[in-house]
Amino acid sequence: MEQVIQNPRARGSLAIGMLSGAVILYEIFLTRLFSVAFSYHFSFAILSLVMFGFGIGGLFYFHRRTQKSVSIRRYIALFILTSVGSVTVWAAIGLISPVIAVPLAFPLYLLSSLVPFILAGMAMSGFFHAWPASTSALYAGDLIGASLAALSAYILMEWIGPVIGTVFVGIAGVISLALAGKTGGEIRWKLYGLLSGLVIVLHLTVTLVFSGDLPIGESSDKDILQSRKEGVTWEIRERRWSSFGRTDLLESEAWRDSMGIYIDGSAGTAMYNANALQTPNSSFYGFPGLIPLRMLQDNQKDSALVIGAGAGRDVISLLLSGMNQVTAVEVNTDLVDIMREYEEYNGGLYSKVDRVNVVAQEGRQFVRKSSDKYDVIMMTLPITKSSRSVEGYALTENTLFTVEAFQDYLSRLTEEGQLIFVAHHEPEVQRLVSLALEAYGREGLSFQQTMARTALIGSMMPILTFSRFPINPVIAMDLYYQQLGAGFSPEMIYLPGMAEGIVPPESTAALFQSLENGSLNPDMFYDDSPWNISPTYDDSPFFYQFGRSVFTAFPSVLWILMIAVPLAILAYVRRTKLWRTQETADHSGLTIFVILGLAFMMVEIALFQKLNFVFPNPAASTSVLLASLLLGAGLGSIASRRRATGKPLELQVGLAAVAVVVPLSQYLLGLIAGNPSIPALSAVLVVVATGFVMGIPFPIALSRVKTISTSDMIPLYWAVNGAFSMVGAFLAMILGITVGFQWAGLIGAVLYALAVPLAQPVTIGISKVSPRIGDGSSPVRSAS
Fold first, then answer.
1. In sequence order, what are the residues at sequence separation of 6 or more whose Cβ sits closer than 8 angstroms to the Cβ of residue 69?
2. At what angle do helices 618-639 and 680-694 cross, to 10 degrees?
3. Could you give the CA distance from residue 294 to residue 302 in angstroms, rounded to a whole number?
4. Which end of the chain is more exposed for a tag (fewer CB within 10 A), N or C?
5. Strand order in the sheet with 235-242
6. Residue 106 · residue 33 · CB < 8 Å
7. Alpha helix (H) ranges present in 322-402?
């Protein structure tokens, strides 16, 4: 075992803080990289990957803790080599082909990403094991380092993107390597530093000199891949990274009048050539969103709002309809910048057209803070669902499509106004109607009155309109026959007042007609649909979760991981009887660390979901709020240092305090989120205060173990805590889908309360292991 400095309070805390910062940078960058390489929902796998890696790392360290070959610096160096090196390899593959369609690509990426977290878990476990006298100081450095890295990750992604930004993972790791303490041979650790430096230089060479970048991975969600399968070849004109994702501008001879803009290889949007729009054979004029706009009266053309404007197709449609003023809201600033820089191509749609006002902001936040009224609010549903969360904690696509969002849109309509949604398939159409039924119902309208304000225009891209006023049956029938004449399917055409016999049975149009005449009520509507189309709410905004079972929401590999890993670790603990002493066989010490792992993650994810409504930029908000929570937890750990004597009452008070504060913080954050006039800083202060309380129990629990047992148990507790932190994150998502994130936070608070009676005098120890001084902690994002 390497010999480390004896007083780590300053240098050691900085060393573990830099390592923790490197880990969270890598973690956050992976969420963006996986969204490009695979699909939006795999970003959630990163969180589980971190917890799994830390847990396994703690277990590996536990087995090697007495061996002379155990070296904290070796683990840090290997973390640098594997983390930076893996991204370097991916970028090098991108030099060969912009697309990788290898069936085993995902498992290979997953495995290569897991190894660095295992090594980081071993190194962090080594820090606490080697320096038992400064548990609280090390834990505080761990948390604060992660907090600062969370903020830095957002800045780096906006500045240079996650691929090049990975070099800072290596730099932070090298600093940790230098500060980690003295080894028996100085040449050895300098060799570690040299190897780490070489992989950083190699990474810069591949990414900067050769312009290596991540290839698009094979996925059904990738629009770019679909175009290639159809024989379309394209060239990349522009590529930009930001916290929102990777934005590519593509040009192809097959696209005669437009260029394509894609986010993470998906969510394609066409930037139209202004000159081509002057010709009647332009592909633009096949856009079905033009149909309802042609029906607008003169008093409905004063102003319009486009949410998720993309490259401007909806904006152009509104201008062609004669709209006097169009406000285009788009969250992706890179896309807006590309539109402005290519103004000669697109006619200056976002820079020279006086009737267009472009706002780079998240659409829901804009609506909530706006006081303007619009004759038309129009949005095209994203055909793919990209992750909006830097941390990848949430499987939520966004909160644009919830009952509360629908109410916000209705509040911004004029008396003659209407909402227009461009959808892609029947499940989206039916769920949008379910949102309308609930939102109009909250305004006092019956479901029959709601359907009298609803119209479905059938096509390959069905259009739903929801009006502030009942639709005139005469106009409706005229529009119906126009659509039939245009060749649209009658199964997807619904207008109020249609004759019973003209609607095909067992179709979406028939369901809507049954709602209109009262033979079907909303509950029956939800039950009769083959999909899960029940209303979605801000507390559970899973609009695209159309499966009726929660099992369809996650890849099967995650279900296996969540069940098998904790059971395997507990079976290992039971088989080796590691909690036993000569007198007792008590589970309570182990159980506390299990509960802390579960509860911390459940509370954390619930808090983040509430705070999605506070900040206009979803990526920035998650980064700031993660930093706030970890900073607060770090300060709480420092505050607990003088009290961390291991006495049961101290731990019981800390656990009880969290159980009380968490529901209170959820209530306060709900008030702040519901009132846009309250400064966002107040939400940050609430999160910091909550994190402060949550940062107290864990170091006290560590001191308790250190007081009544040999500290060789700590790496094992690290492993158990890490594994159940992974489970906690998974459970929070399941609860979010089924009953809402509010319940995830409340159940987390209940778990803290249940841990209170367990924090009583017990004998915790191990047998058949050599005692040595040491201490450990759980990963920074798993418990506090």
1. none
2. 40
3. 15
4. N
5. 235-242, 245-251, 258-263, 266-272
6. no
7. 333-341, 343-346, 363-369
State whether residue 253 is helix, strand or coil: coil
**506-538 tens-digit pLDDT:** 888 889 999 999 999 999 999 888 899 999 999
Tokens of 561: 């991981």
DSSP characters for 52-72?
A: HHHHHHHHHHHHHTTSTT--H
Mean pLDDT of 73-79: 92
SS3 246: strand
**Is residue 764 predicted with pLDDT exceeding 60?**
no
In degrees rounded to 5, what are phi and psi of residue 240? -135, 140
Contact 259, 310 (CB under 8 A): no
Question: Are the CB atoms for 105 and 35 separated by under 8 Å?
Answer: no
- 214 in helix, strand or coil? coil
Average pLDDT over the chain reads 82
DSSP assignment of 67-106 equals: STT--HHHHHHHHHHHHHHHHHHHHHHHHH-SEE--TTHH
Q: Decide: helix, strand or coil at residue 263.
A: strand
- Asked if 480 contacts 489 with a C-beta cutoff of 8 angstroms, the reply is no
One-letter amino acid at 393 equals Y
pLDDT tens-digit map of 378-435: 999 875 444 443 333 334 456 889 999 999 999 999 999 999 999 988 999 999 999 9
Percent residues over pLDDT 70 in the chain = 82
**Dist CA 629 CA 610 (whole Å):** 13
* 3-state class (DSSP) for residue 114: helix
Would you say how long the chain is, in residues? Answer: 784
699 vs 136: CA distance, rounded Å: 6
- Residue 241 contacts residue 160 (beta carbons within 8 Å): yes
Burial of 97 (0-12, 13-18, 19+ CB in 10 A): exposed
Q: Residue 395: what pLDDT?
A: 41
Of 16, 15, 67, which Cα lies nearest the Cα of 772? 67
Instruction: Give the separation between CA 562 and CA 335, rounded to whole angstroms.
Output: 38
Percent of the chain that is helix, strand, coil (3-state, to 5): 60, 10, 30
Q: Model pTM?
A: 0.86
Between CA 476 and CA 473 the distance in angstroms is 5
Cα-flanking dihedrals φ and ψ of residue 631, to 5°?
-65, -45
> CA-to-CA distance for 372 and 364, rounded, in angstroms?
14
Supply the DSSP string of 301-341, one letter for each residue.
-SEEEEES-TTSHHHHHHHHTT-SEEEEE-S-HHHHHHHHH
Instruction: Give the number of other CB atoms < 10 A from CB of residue 23.
Output: 33
Report the pLDDT value the prediction gives residue 219, as an integer from 0 to 100: 65
645, burial (CB in 10 Å: exposed 0-12, middle 13-18, buried 19+): exposed
Give residues with Cβ within 8 angstroms of 527, minimum separation 6. Answer: none
Give me the mean pLDDT over the 77-101 stretch: 89
- Give CA–CA dist 778/783, Å, rounded: 6
Q: Please state the separation of Cα 445 from the chain's center in Å.
A: 35
170-186 average pLDDT score:
78
* Cβ pair 16, 138 in contact under 8 A: yes
Residue showing tokens 């290639």? 228
What sign does the CA torsion over 482, 483, 485, 491 have?
negative
